[in-house]
């Protein structure tokens, strides 16, 4: 234990030959220097070490706030990748709070058995909520690293020269100095050079709600953007081969590059593969090669087809929070139970959050197709007839201009524009959360595309081979 008094001792992180030690050097005390080993996997020794940060005393967790991902002095026990090791990955992705910071979090991804980690930060003064895997206003987040929990802390720096937090009843409240003023650690002082952008959650949400564009760029990710969904700030990712352009208020084709003398832009038509493809000839084997995570519940294989009983479902986790964009298609082949064609969800992103934005279902002995765009308040609905006693080839197609459906070779279309609205729900084949609302019958094959279409998209698939 360190015996020096907290008021006369400072703790400095220094680089030594052993990355797991922190040297404590007294400045105005007569006691001999001591050495304290701080390991981020334990707080036994750190509990007796005092450190000053924004006029408040914190334990070792405060030390972590000074440690950045690329800092060479970072202890071996603590790396971004190590924070990802015990996460549950959904479709190769996961999130973890960053120790010592309420605003930062680690975005983890897994590919080919290798884990990758990136340090991210919530926008506009939001705090990271691990339980909801999203950024939320500080008042909604139980963060024990909030400096406002310290005694006598009135305010502290946020980001840039204008941003700061004020403390109200132990809760951080994001604020901004006016343009031409900067936060000096105590108050806003005049500084003509301080013109950094600064927004509070209230201002950001108002801009997203009432502005002409309902999306804003994500400053930490050129391929993503911010939007409000069900009253919450959400981060979205553009489809593969596109990037977010605020001037267009949406995702656009990525810049053209050249590879070995050949023109390349996004995903070429001839290279377009589905995000998910299953024909059930090989059981529940996903055939597109995308390695999308999915879950099977009460579905049975019956002579090379999947049998659904109204309570069975196949959940595609990879479509949770996935940007569906202006290119989205579903191609499937099904045969209903002729005694149960009154209702039943064949495929949709139904769930606990909002009505589905993509759906194919049986309703009143008809096929009901629906698509919900961000540009329209109500979903576009198309109803079509089907054969209740035989196999039906169905196509669901949206290209940013028209919503097209095809049943057994007959097309119907309606005009529709804008991005398909994203949902935090997974895409579910055969059912929804409510019991007895699912599909009863057989599905022989199903493919889901986003971001591109194959050339033969309207041709019924007869070749069961791999992509």
From TrEMBL:
List the record's Gene Ontology CC terms alphabetically: extracellular region
Entry's PROSITE patterns? CHIT_BIND_II (PS50940)
InterPro entries per the record? Chitin-bd_dom, Chitin-bd_dom_sf, ConA-like_dom_sf
Q: Where is this region: Disordered?
A: 1-33
> Which GO MF term does the entry hold, naming one?
chitin binding
Alphabetical list of Pfam families matching this protein: CBM_14, Laminin_G_3
**Chitin-binding type-2 domain: residues covered:** 81-145
Name of the featured protein: Shell matrix protein
Q: Which organism is it from?
A: Gigantidas platifrons
């Amino acid at each position: 234990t360190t015996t020096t008094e907290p008021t006369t001792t400072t703790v400095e992180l220094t680089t030594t030959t052993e990355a797991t030690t922190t040297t404590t050097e007294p400045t105005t005390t007569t006691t001999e220097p001591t050495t304290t080993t701080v390991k981020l996997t334990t707080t036994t020794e750190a509990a007796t070490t005092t450190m000053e940060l924004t006029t408040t005393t914190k334990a070792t967790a405060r030390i972590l706030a000074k440690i950045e991902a690329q800092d060479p002095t970072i202890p071996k026990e603590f790396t971004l990748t190590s924070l990802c090791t015990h996460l549950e990955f959904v479709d190769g992705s996961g999130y973890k709070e960053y120790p010592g910071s309420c605003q930062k979090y680690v975005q983890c991804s897994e590919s080919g058995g290798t884990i990758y980690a990136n340090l991210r930060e919530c926008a506009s003064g939001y705090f990271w909520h691990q339980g909801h895997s999203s950024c939320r206003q500080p008042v909604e987040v139980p963060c024990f690293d909030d400096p406002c929990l310290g005694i006598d802390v009135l305010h502290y720096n946020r980001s840039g020269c204008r941003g700061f937090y004020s403390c109200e009843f132990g809760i951080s409240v994001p604020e901004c100095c006016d343009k031409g003023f900067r936060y000096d650690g105590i108050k806003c002082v005049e500084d003509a050079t301080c013109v950094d952008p600064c927004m509070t959650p209230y201002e950001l949400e108002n801009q997203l709600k009432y502005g002409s564009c309902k999306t804003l760029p994500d400053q930490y990710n050129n391929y993503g953007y911010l939007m409000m969904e069900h009253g919450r700030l959400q981060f979205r990712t553009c489809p593969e081969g596109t990037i977010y352009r605020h001037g267009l208020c949406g995702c656009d084709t990525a810049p053209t590059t050249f590879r070995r003398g050949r023109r390349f832009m996004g995903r070429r038509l001839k290279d377009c593969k589905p995000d998910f493809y299953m024909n059930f000839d090989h059981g529940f084997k996903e055939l597109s090669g995308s390695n999308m995570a999915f879950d099977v519940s009460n579905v049975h294989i019956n002579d090379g087809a999947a049998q659904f009983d109204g309570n069975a479902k196949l959940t595609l986790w990879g479509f949770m929070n996935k940007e569906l964009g202006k290119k989205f298609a579903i191609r499937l082949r099904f045969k209903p139970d002729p005694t149960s064609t009154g209702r039943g969800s064949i495929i949709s992103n139904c769930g606990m959050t909002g009505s589905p934005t993509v759906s194919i279902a049986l309703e009143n002995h008809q096929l009901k197709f629906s698509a919900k765009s961000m540009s329209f308040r109500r979903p576009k609905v198309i109803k079509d007839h089907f054969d209740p006693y035989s196999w039906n080839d169905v196509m669901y197609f949206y290209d940013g201009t028209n919503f097209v459906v095809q049943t057994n070779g007959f097309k119907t279309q309606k005009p529709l524009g804008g991005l398909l609205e994203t949902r935090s729900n997974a895409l579910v084949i055969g059912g929804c959360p409510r019991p007895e609302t699912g599909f009863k019958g057989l599905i022989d094959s199903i493919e889901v595309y986003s971001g591109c279409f194959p050339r033969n998209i309207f041709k019924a698939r007869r070749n069961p081979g791999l992509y």
